[in-house]
Amino acid sequence: MTAKAKGTAALKRIRMEEGSGNVFADLGLPHPEQELLKAKLALQIYRLIKRRGLTQADAGKILGIKQPHVSTLMRNRSGAFSVERLMDFLTALGQDVEITVRPTRKGHGEVSVVA
User: Fold this and answer.
1) pLDDT in tens, 63-77
2) CA-CA distance, 93 to 36, in Å (whole number)?
3) What is the pTM of this model?
4) Is residue 89 part of a domain?
5) Count of domains in the chain?
6) What distance lies between CA 2 and its chain's CA centroid?
């Protein structure tokens, strides 16, 4: 096989679809809006802990949870925590959490995180 043939053989067509903006919905998981919200809140918690240079043990003391749970949170495995609990973690880290309710222009409302 020539070098050109080898290069051509290595190229494969990959089928691609445009995502909806919510990977949880794209994967067909239950409660995708809630899971996306939890992931966004967990990301904010992760960024705060990293920005402050906290160890997981120190973060656990601030959040009122054990270090292994902080580790889970830092790996964006927020499924074990409710949205309310994640918001409590943010306030424990000195953040204000604001919930705004307003009419939607679409047929169905949505939940978002603005940081």
Assistant:
1) 999 999 999 999 988
2) 21
3) 0.77
4) yes
5) 1
6) 46
